[in-house]
Structures are given as structure tokens and as C-alpha cells.
Design a protein that fits this description.
The protein is mainly alpha-helical and about 100 residues long. The chain has a single domain (about 5-104), classed as 434 Repressor (Amino-terminal Domain) (Orthogonal Bundle), CATH 1.10.260. Helix content is about 60%, strand content about 10%. The protein is built from 6 helices and 2 strands; from the N terminus they run ααααββαα. Helix 1 runs parallel beside helix 4 (about 45-55) and helix 2 (about 20-25) crosses helix 3 (about 30-40). It is globular.
Length: about 100
Amino acid sequence: MIFRALQCRMARAALGWGVRELATVAKVSIDTVVRFERGDELKERTVEALQRAFETAGVEFINGDRPGVRATKAMEEGTQLPTGAPKTTTTSMLAKRRRTNKKR
């Protein structure tokens, strides 16, 4: 199966993960995730690490004429970040930004 940059972005959106969370779970650098999503070619083992991180969290990849992602039963039941992932979420980051903006 070919794991594509678009599928990576789709899977992150489905899980509500940022680049940081994915990098932590996959044990790669943030820059590596950004380069992959930009379309740069990476080593096969690095791409596999990204894919495994999503699969562990309950994402299944669909290929064919219309590549995509879908939730497995584990994800539908309320997947949380795997062990070792930072607890930062988009919602908490936005709340922090709002508090910071109010101080100005």
C-alpha cells in the first residue's frame, strides 16, 4: 500500500492531531512530518512509522482510484492519544491563544 501525504493530513484531521502529536507518536521530528506532508520523499521506514502511528490510533487507509482514510471500530469508540503523545489539542491551544490575546 502507498501511504500518501494527503492521507496523512486527512488522518491527522480525523484524530484531531497536530504535527507535534504525530511526530511524538511516530518518534520522528516535526520537520519530518512537515516534509512528508509537503510531498518530499522520505525513507521507507520513516513513512512506515508515520503510518503505524495512525493505525495504532485506529485509522485505516484506503487506496485505489480514490485514496482516503476511515475509522476503525477502536477509533469510533473514542480513541485517545497513544502513550507518549503530548496532551496538547487544537482546542486547548486556541483557548491559550485567546487568553494571551486578552492580556494585550
